[in-house]
Amino acid sequence: MARKSKGRGTAAAFGMLLLFAGLVGGGVLYMRSVSRPSAAVDGFARASVGCTTTLRFTETGTFFVFKDLGPVNDAPSGGCQPAADPTQTFAFELRGNDGPVVPRADDQLSYDTDDHLGNSVARIEIDSAGEYQLVVVGDDPAVAAAIGRDPDDGVDELRQRAILVATFGVVLGVLLLVLAGRRSNRAAAFLAPDGPGWGPRQNAERVVVPDEPGVVRSAVNPHLPDEQVSIAGPLSEVNELLSRPRMPRPVSPWAPPVLGGTATNPPVAEQIALQLPHTLEKQAEEVIVDVTDAITDEITDAVTDIAAGDPDQPTG
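Above: the chain sequence. Below: its structure as tokens.
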């Protein structure tokens, strides 16, 4: 009979859930890692050439100043319009409550998105949060100064998380599905019980049948009695039984029709069967008479010899 395996349905469902969650979670994190640089660039603070722009820093740390070519997100302070100076190259100055912030040259970073194209020109350190004044000069009114952190910061971490989540979900999901499949195969295996009509189990021990002994067998008639049957009792009882009148046998309705109506004589086989007991009875009576006469003659001769004496015997 088939054995039921507990929990294989739950394991299979949980395995499918982990597999799906791993693939979806890994895909979402990977897409965030791809879109993170573009979102970071769109969030940069920008200041136009020829204007002084007020910036508010809510966090401290390292920031980069980029020479950005694209639309200006933030309107210049006081409604200042870009004003280029052909005699000056691109430059900036950042002043805070504690004085100007000293930049350090850095041109290692760059970005290229659908709306912005920029290269880093310097790195600055913000030690305290608050408002700062950014003054930008240059010879191209289409160029702006963009301040923000590294656009690729955190991208590698998101990709690693995406790989870990996808791998974790896929591996555990596949393991649970394999485990559920093995349990299902064991549950579907047919285990035949012992007993007539089923045969032994597959792992049952082999039964060794001994060789047949060298005994000569002869055919025996199962209907032959062990001893010869003899009829006991006086001959008068046998004769009485044989002399009882027999009931006439009724005529079979399926017998062939006879002229004159009802058939009066039974078939030949039945006549022979009816006459056979009479014949046997007569033969038995003749045998009994012959035997009786022979015994009587032997007794008579013996008595006569005894009375006359035996001449072959010596006398005294």
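The radius of gyration is 65 Å.
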